[in-house]
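Private note to self, pasted from the team thread so I don't lose it. Backbone tokens:
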């Protein structure tokens, strides 16, 4: 039997991550396109020294018990880690890692792409041409809302929110943000951003983009009341986590014209079934959680996830732990 550490990798990830893990470990790699079913995950995790998980794998007491006390590290292939019960891993003295930083710009790019596509009705325009409905230039055809000169409201002013601010500035937008932790005066000046209360942001922004972690406080942060207080011309963008928006309230608001449009990279539930009412709405663009999906960025995320996994297996501090308190 090999003395190399045993690890479970729950999906095929780019070679930048798989190669170093394969070089150093006995790897059980789940090769299906779909995540391992829960019972399979619990079976395969038993006895491993390390787990390289995805945001689709719930890492909780049940899984950690199934893994066993030899588990040294959990490395999540994502910056978000709401799939990990952090107190549960910490209680067991297991460090968990994520992949911050490397996907910031790529995610901000997609948030801005959704903002533009929803504002200028690009998917509707593409469908119009494909359906053979384009007969002439139309003075009233597919009118959208202006991006330049508009106010961009950013909810959650961390790394990705700030990158979105830079993109908005490039388009001549006015930037307001809401975050429980105000940015420094220097950062506000550099990014040309002004902190406002949440209700002011909802009332005054033309574009609202969500960049908060999913927590008990942010679950359904955008509910019926929040949507009602937005402008009827507002465009809502979500690249954070689906449950930050109440999907039934959003459907109603889009149907009733309480807001102009929405662009969603993340949804509740996820995946969103093709027959979900939000999918059929012309003023709602839904893409399948692809904000970080460029080859370069996914390669960097894979390398980072591998680095966290291998550090944990060696008993070293993870480069990017989500539970640094585990080292106290
Ligand atoms: C993350 O990393 O949390 C994204 O949602 C997927 O890249």
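Design output:
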């Amino acid at each position: 039997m090999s003395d190399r550490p045993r690890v479970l990798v729950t999906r095929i990830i780019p070679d930048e991550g798989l190669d170093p893990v394969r070089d150093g470990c006995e790897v059980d790699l789940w090769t299906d396109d779909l995540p391992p079913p829960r019972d399979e995950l619990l079976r395969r995790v038993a006895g491993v020294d390390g787990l390289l998980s995805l945001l689709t794998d719930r890492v909780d007491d049940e899984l950690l018990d199934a893994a066993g006390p030899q588990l040294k590290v959990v490395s999540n292939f994502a910056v978000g880690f709401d799939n990990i019960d952090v107190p549960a891993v910490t209680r067991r003295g297991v460090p968990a890692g994520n992949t911050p930083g490397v996907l910031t710009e790529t995610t901000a790019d997609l948030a801005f792409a959704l903002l533009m596509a929803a504002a200028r009705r690009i998917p509707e325009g593409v469908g119009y041409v494909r359906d053979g409905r384009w007969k002439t230039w139309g003075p009233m055809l597919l009118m959208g809302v202006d991006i330049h000169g508009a106010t961009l409201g950013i909810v959650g002013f961390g790394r990705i929110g700030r990158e979105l601010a830079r993109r908005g500035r490039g388009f001549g937008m006015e930037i307001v943000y809401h975050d429980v932790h105000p940015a420094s005066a220097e950062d506000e000046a550099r990014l040309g951003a002004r902190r406002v209360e949440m209700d002011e942001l909802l009332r005054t922004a033309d574009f609202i983009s969500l960049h908060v972690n999913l927590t008990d406080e942010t679950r359904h942060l955008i509910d019926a009341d929040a949507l009602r207080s937005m402008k009827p011309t507002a465009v809502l963008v979500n690249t954070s986590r689906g449950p930050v928006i109440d999907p039934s309230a959003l459907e109603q608001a889009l149907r009733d014209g309480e807001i102009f449009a929405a662009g969603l990279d993340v949804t509740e539930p996820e995946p969103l079934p093709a027959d979900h009412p939000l999918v059929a709405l012309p003023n709602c663009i839904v893409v399948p959680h692809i904000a970080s999906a460029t080859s370069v960025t996914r390669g960097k995320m894979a390398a980072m996830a591998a680095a966290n996994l291998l550090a944990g297996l060696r008993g070293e501090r993870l480069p990017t732990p989500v539970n640094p308190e585990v080292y106290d």
